[in-house]
Structure formats: structure tokens, C-alpha cells
Amino acid sequence: MTAPFTVAIDGPAAAGKGTISKAVAAHFGLAHLDTGLLYRAVGVRMLLGEDPTKAAQTLVAQDLESPDLRSADVAQAASKVAVIPDVRAALLDFQRAFARRAGGAVLDGRDIGTVICPQAEAKLFVTASPEVRAQRRLAELRDRGFETEFDTVLADVKARDDRDTNRADAPLRPADDAVTIDTSSLDIDAAVAAAIAVVAARRAL
Ligand code: CDP
């Protein structure tokens, strides 16, 4: 059995974690988990009137297939349920088991290198300026058919940054041993290449 090899990729909203994580996973043949989807799925169920903790405790694979998961409203709901310690606790074991699965895994989120898998073999903190992130998220939302404006998206990104950074339980911050990649002036290829270089160096140890 292959020894576990975990790549933890954390960072604020729309910094490019998703694209980088998928590319790193494909390059090294690792499984990938977008942990934001778990919080988004709980957010969807809260918006439907359910108690968030109960929703987190009874999450099923089908919840991750909701077509609404990527909407701006669900992103805000996700960051609201994410401050609730019982919600985070309910999602912990699944993420930890995924992180240490045989064959290795890439997880992206906010607290992977700090709380979910502090022993991760490679840790990245992917960030960019709020304006660059809002511009990218605006393009992504429009591509998906959600009509919105730059100022609205920027305000949403900043509100979420604030909630994610200032919550008491598992706040967003780089792990002490994380390598930071600022993608503000990097295109996708350059950002992916930088991330692959960091992980390759850790895999060679
Ligand atoms: O894709 P984007 O970066 O906009 O967000 P996401 O990764 O899908 O996460 C949505 C929300 O879930 C975040 O704003 C966080 O509040 C929360 N989250 C978290 O608390 N911990 C994680 N490991 C992942 C997401």
C-alpha cells in the first residue's frame, strides 16, 4: 500500500485554489477533495430551512450534486454555517480520512494545513488581492449563467474573507510551514507550475 501523501491547499475565496488543486491532483495522480463543497452543501440545506448542524451530521453524496452549490447566495450561507463549531466537527472525520487515504490526496479549503491535516507533507497557501479575486469570481459566475456586478462580488468576497478570518474555530490563516503563492499577477499556467514545483520538492524528500 502506498504511504499517505497529503497536499493541503488553503486560501481565501476565489484565489485559484480549485484550479490549482485539480491540476496538482492530476499531475501527481492524487485524489482531490474540494472541502468548500461540504460547507456549501450544508449552506444549501440551511437555506431550505434545515438546522445547519443536523444537515452537516446527515450530509450524503447527493447533497454535493446540487446545481446551486456554486451560487453567490450559497457561498455566503456556507461561510455562515462554517463558523458553527458543531458543523465543523461533523465534517472533520470524513476530511481526515480522505486526507490520509492510501495513494495520497489533495484537499483545498481554509483549515486543511492548520486543523484537518497538520501533518500534511506539502502545504500551500494560495492568495491574491481582493480585487483580482472578485474579477475572477465575476467571470466564473457569469460563465455559469449567474448575472451580477463587480462591486457586488467584491463586497461578497470581502464579507466572506472577514467571516472566515475572524471566526474563533479554525480561522483562515496560513500554517506556519505553508508556502504562500500570490496569484495576483500569475496566469493559470504560472500558478499551477509554481504549485507543482513546491509539491515535487516535498515528494522528493
Ligand atoms: O470557492 P471559494 O473559495 O469561493 O469558496 P469555497 O472554498 O467553496 O468555501 C465556501 C465557504 O466555506 C468559505 O467561505 C468558508 O467559510 C467555508 N469553508 C471552511 O470554512 N473551511 C473549509 N475547509 C472550506 C470552506
- N-to-C order of helices and strands: EHEHHHHEHEHHEH
CATH topology: Rossmann fold
pLDDT averaged over residues: 96
Work out the strand percent: 5-15%
Radius of gyration: 16 Å
Share of helical residues: 40-55%
Shape: globular
- Please describe the biggest sheet, giving its number of strands, its sense, and whether it closes into a barrel: 5 strands, parallel
Strand order of the largest sheet: 2-3-1-4-5
- Given the helix and strand composition, which structural class is it? alpha/beta
Give the CATH H-level superfamily: P-loop containing nucleotide triphosphate hydrolases
Structurally, the number of domains stands at 1
* Count of strand segments: 5
**Distinct small molecules bound, one entry per kind:** cytidine-5'-diphosphate
Q: In the CATH classification, which architecture applies?
A: 3-Layer(aba) Sandwich
Per CATH, the class reads Alpha Beta
The low-confidence runs, each spanning 5 or more residues with pLDDT under 50, are none
How many H/I helices? 9
Q: Termini separation (Å)?
A: 19 Å
Short description:
With 205 residues, this protein is an alpha/beta fold.
Structure notes:
With 205 residues, the chain is an alpha/beta fold. The protein has one domain: P-loop containing nucleotide triphosphate hydrolases (Rossmann fold). It is built from 9 helices and 5 strands; from the N terminus they run βαβααααβαβααβα. It has a 5-stranded parallel sheet with strand order 2-3-1-4-5, with helices on both faces. The two termini are 19 Å apart. The mean pLDDT is 96. Bound molecules: cytidine-5'-diphosphate (CDP). Residues 13-14, 18, 35-36, 39-40, 75, 78-79, 82, 109-111, 160, 164 line the site of cytidine-5'-diphosphate. Cytidine-5'-diphosphate (CDP) is lined by residues 13-14, 18, 35-36, 39-40, 75, 78-79, 82, 109-111, 160, 164.
